[in-house]
Amino acid sequence: MATAIPTQVVIFGASGDLTARKLVPALFSAFHQGHLPGGTQLIGVARRPWDDNGFREHLAQTVGKPTEHPRWAEFLGGVHYVRTHLDTAEDYRELARALDAAAPGPVNRVFYLAVKPELFLPSVAHMHAAGLLTQDGTNGPRRRVVVEKPFGADLGSATVLNQNLLGLLGEDQLYRIDHYLGKETVQNTLVFRFRNALFEPLWNQKYVELVQITVGEAIGMENGRGGFYDTAGAARDILQNHLLQVLALVAMEAPSSMQAKDIRDEKVKVLRALRSLDGLDARKHIVRGQYEGYRAEPGVDPQSQTETYIAARAYIDNWRWGGVPFLLRTGKHLPARFTSVKVQFRMPPHTLFGGPDECHLRPNAITLRIQPNDGIDITFDVKEPGQGLVIQPAKLNFDYAGRFQKATPDAYERLLIDVINGDQALFIRSDEIEQSWRWTDSLRARMRETPLHLYGRNSWGPFAGDELFGECEGRWVQG
Ligand SMILES: NC(=O)c1ccc[n+]([C@@H]2O[C@H](COP(=O)([O-])OP(=O)(O)OC[C@H]3O[C@@H](n4cnc5c(N)ncnc54)[C@H](OP(=O)(O)O)[C@@H]3O)[C@@H](O)[C@H]2O)c1
Question: pLDDT tens digits, residue range 374-389?
């Protein structure tokens, strides 16, 4: 539900890729469906020497489909541009004046930092000094800041960034975004688990043998990402954030309410319980790879040791999950772009059908398909009709598209509306970020002791990836 007073959505990095591809289309979609408070404005901020019309023309050329909508011109009426050098203190005072002039009455402000991470702290410090983050009481207009990923590069830098930012604004003003949390199927994980008495009793170490989570990417270093990616790698770029966020939702206890605090309290407990890889046999817990030709990509070191594929066998040391392996995998240039969670159940205690050689057959699994073709699959065994006892696998499918016949909103749209409404449930709190880095750091430290396998583009990554599964535990899903 929209708040009563209008919001100025101030995008730092307004001439950039994220703004054109995601933020403006998401904001426009929310606007034309009536999900924004009346009078909401979009204020673009960047260094380009544009005026309002220059920015509007840039959007017309870059955002694509929204410009064909009958309400696009109306939307543009609320679009402004303020040329600002984010490293220059004086420019923020000018920005403050321009924002006041654009909306003279009470107005909430969302500052979206769609700029490189080095600018996060200086921008917030300059905003603070210019009074842009000051809020009056608890009922006055709100000042909120959205920070993009990456948030830090390890535990040390993330902790320092948290401390510095929280010296300038409250945790309730800070929205650390992971767009995965805006995806419908990710949110549906909570509904599926905690609304259905059918499944939740089985969702623990007593019945679950293994959980595997994949974030697979079909692309490589497109759009000049090589230079950045080579300093990050798959563990920092995807595993630390998207994979661990999905894991936290799959493994958390039921929150006592859907309030942000209760959800985030439960997520952080899972992340805290992730067993550090210090002292474990690295080769049994980590497989890393690099796709062939990566070192020839623009911006990449020709000797690069950066992983473009990482797979890990993780454990959550708590009552619910003690002893259950969580296999996590992400990679570039896999044959398909897909994200899924497969929860594999144990065999019944006594085998009535089939002999001991059937250890590879695990009839029961629940697969949450997060993208594409969002949905849920449940597999089980049935008897084939006829004489004899021939057992065959069967599947129940639920597909979002088939069931609801309406487009799924983009993750950024959902999250932008949440920021405007002050709902932090789908944003990451400082302790969650730090716990994610704690575990990722332990993985990265041990990763260097494992070989860097080369794998072909359009393959499922190194063959060694399947060796993370124990005997009879199965293998990685393929799409
Ligand atoms: N693109 C994506 O799909 C994506 C996905 C996830 C996360 N992110 C994150 O989102 C952020 C932005 O990514 P992007 O791909 O949109 O970057 P980008 O295309 O390189 O855009 C960067 C923006 O920052 C502005 N900028 C740079 N230095 C500035 C300064 N000193 N003062 C004012 N403006 C400045 C640039 O505008 P001027 O040159 O006009 O100043 C430009 O608008 C990054 O943190 C990235 O990690 C991006």
Answer: 999 999 999 999 998 8
